[in-house]
Design a protein that fits this description.
Helices cover about 15% and strands about 25% of the residues. It is of the alpha+beta class. It is globular. It comes from Niastella caeni.
Length: about 120
């Protein structure tokens, strides 16, 4: 994966369900986000678009006064797209899921091991 992009839990990642023409730029991708997904582009969320053969991926993010597009083209293989709810227009991904998609790791075979999570005490 590119060292230029930082994936983390500080933002939400939304994978658009329909295949996308990769000739679309900032304005047309913003139109999809606003008109089809009903979301605000400037909230800092990342929106992921994949073409029909799943060989190209664009991620659009608004950060501090401007838009950024991350564009990835695979030389071989295809991006794995998770199964969608039939009624959903997009799917929210975790930063880990997006990382796996970008790295070519199968989402179907991922098994998370149990980890300790500290429980916060209720202050009454």
């Amino acid at each position: 994966m590119s060292s230029l992009i930082l994936l983390g839990d500080h933002r939400s990642y939304h994978l658009y369900r329909k295949e996308t023409d990769m000739r679309k730029g900032f304005n047309l991708l913003c139109g999809i986000i606003t008109n089809e997904l009903g979301r605000q582009v400037t909230k800092g969320d990342a929106f992921i678009f994949i073409n029909k053969p799943r060989t190209h991926l664009k991620m659009l993010v608004y950060e501090q006064g401007g838009f950024t597009i991350f564009y990835r083209r695979l030389e071989k293989g295809a991006f794995e797209v998770p199964a969608f709810d039939l009624d959903a227009k997009s799917m929210q991904l975790t930063s880990n899921q997006l990382h796996f998609i970008l790295q070519g790791i199968s989402l179907k075979e991922i098994k998370y091991r149990k980890r300790y999570q500290h429980q916060k005490a209720n202050s009454e």
